[in-house]
Amino acid sequence: MEPLRCVVLSPTPVSRRGPGVVFRGVRSLDGARAALLSDEPDALVVDVASLGEEGLKALEELVHTHPHLPAVAVASFEQMPEAVRRGARGLVPPPVEDAALAAAVETAVLGHRHLRETLQLAVLRPLGRLRELVSADEGPEGVLRRLVEITRGAVDADRAAVVALSPQAPDLVVATAQQAGGSVTERLWTLLPDRLAAFGNAHEEAGEVLTAALATADHTLGALMAFRDRDRRPFSVVERELLSLLGILGALPLVQADLVRRIRQANRSLVNALAYACELHEATLRGHSERLSSYAVAVARRLGLEEGALEDLRVAGMLHDVGKIGISDTILLKPGPLTPEEYEVMKRHTVMGAEILSAAEFGEDVVRWVLHHHERWDGRGYPMGLAGEEIPLGARILAVADAFEVMTAGRVYREAVPVEAAVEELRAQRERQFDPAVVDAFVEALRSGEVRVELGLRR
Fold first, then answer.
1. Mean pLDDT confidence for 300-311
2. What is the pTM of this model?
3. Which domains does the chain have, with CATH numbers?
């Protein structure tokens, strides 16, 4: 390992080398300034014992201008407290031996490096937590909830707040986090901009308030605020800079969350438009996909599917019949039974629907569930004749929801039946056409009100 390099400000000559340390002696403050700039040393030594008050002033100046360097003071016992106050990280009493001075320098350098690493970790740790801000299941409000707690912990504040413009309305969203003993209390609410002043007055009793803009390069989204009580120390320079950095980096997940929300809204509009297009050719189909989708999601929630799967099932329900776009209205609107040839053509709508959705890059589950929503529990369905749990769960749910909706709403080829009769038919087809667990979940959801049958349908 290379020896440490150290500049020594002393009126008396020093040896060039101690154990593990190379010294460069200078006799004036100007010489020390020049040596610190040119040599890029690892440490600084000031002989306060020989220089007296001038040495203490030099120590203070050099520590201030070179805070990255640990300083060791050669000082008498009477001078040591003042030397520490002026910035010394190591102390050596005179007379000084090379080995003792080298040991003090090594200790100061190692301690200073450890302190810097600790501070760097303290700064980087809250920045690393910014990864938590973006979640597939949370919008901008969820980002604000997480950001305010990260902010409070990062700068060791008693309270913190984030104020941002709501993406849905011209209101402000306010998130707060407050330390109360060993726990943190969080709140989130919206208020009109003209009430922001009242919010600010509520924190007038805080001892110190830090603020930073929550901003991207082109516009400001809001503000971060950190509050510390009067009986605590002031915020440090590092904490002030860290809050500013959190304002810059915290704005990016907020923008991303809003972008995800906009994309989801656009996708939902596209799905609704496609579903509407599928239903244009038959009056009794109007609202079919939306009703089926709501039934399927309610059943899936009762069966314990996660939020991401629920959204995929909603999309699959809305688009389960998209393949009928390729089927002739002569077949679709035929009032009587289909011929075997016509039935074979009709069965192709599941495959065509899956192909359309795959080409449009919908999710794999959405495509699979649409492809298999006419399979039967007993294996007599189409297009592949899957049976039992070979059929994807989402498709099994769609099959039950589809059958119930068709029975209760009616079609050109069949009259609508009462809800009770439709339920009895589902039960009769348990373990034949339908997954018994899905039928049971559907009936339970219907009884609890989770499945809500719209009024005004033909019964």
1. 92
2. 0.53
3. 4-126 (3.40.50.2300), 134-259 (3.30.450.40), 280-448 (1.10.3210.10)
